TrEMBL record:
Gene: efp
Subcellular location: Cytoplasm
Function: Involved in peptide bond synthesis. Stimulates efficient translation and peptide-bond synthesis on native or reconstituted 70S ribosomes in vitro. Probably functions indirectly by altering the affinity of the ribosome for aminoacyl-tRNA, thus increasing their reactivity as acceptors for peptidyl transferase.
HAMAP family named among the record's database cross-references: EF_P (MF_00141)
Biological source species: Flavobacterium resistens
GO cellular component, one term: cytosol
A single GO molecular function term of this UniProt record: translation elongation factor activity
Domain Elongation factor P C-terminal: 130-185
Family: Belongs to the elongation factor P family.
Single GO BP term: peptide biosynthetic process
Protein name: Elongation factor P
Length: 188
């Protein structure tokens, strides 16, 4: 058993008869009243996100997890197939376990958290950013750049991303996997 002082991003806990991963947390110490921890929890079984507040010193049930590097092989319907980089063992995970499945390119390495009690995968941590090639981009209209003008572009995985007007087909762009937003153009 742990307490609220052990809460950190990525911690997996048992809560309300389900397994949750802590996405965000904030320790709050108001001027009047006891301290508390405001958290945002993501269910690892259903993918739902909920907000919860723990009072200071509240006991939480932490789940022991191991993290392994897996390589993404290919999608098949709602199943995504991965291979363990050390043992070459293959697993398939449902699409709703992944944070940004539309940004996964074949060969991308991800970190998979596995419950040590049941040996079942709990969550997949994507790299902070991915570099993908633009396969379709609408032409930018000249003189349309008074403010941060963006246009929709499709990348090689099929995801749609808002990009600046100067991005063209064939350009490689860096995308933030947490928000799915454009970061920068990559020169090669």
């Amino acid at each position: 058993m742990a307490s609220t002082s052990d809460i950190r991003n990525g911690l997996c806990i048992k809560f309300n008869h389900d397994i949750y991963k802590i996405i965000e947390f904030l320790h709050v110490k108001p001027g009047k009243g006891p301290a508390f921890v405001r958290t945002k929890l993501k269910s690892l079984t259903s993918g739902k996100v909920l907000d919860n507040t723990f009072s200071a010193g509240h006991k939480i049930d932490v789940i022991r997890v191991e993290t392994h590097t897996f390589q993404f092989l290919y999608p098949e319907g709602d199943e995504f197939h991965f291979m363990n980089a050390e043992t070459f063992e293959q697993i398939s995970l449902n699409k709703n376990i992944l944070d940004a499945p539309d940004l996964l390119k074949e060969g991308t390495n991800v970190m998979v958290q596995i419950n040590t009690e049941t040996d079942l995968p709990l969550s997949v941590d994507m790299p902070a950013s991915v570099i993908l090639e633009v396969t379709y981009a609408e032409p930018g209209v000249k003189g349309n750049t008074a403010t941060n003008a963006t246009k929709s572009a499709t990348v090689e995985t099929g995801a749609s991303v808002n990009v600046p007007l100067f991005i063209n087909e064939g350009d490689k762009i860096k995308i933030d996997t947490a928000s799915g937003s454009y970061m920068e153009r990559v020169k090669e």
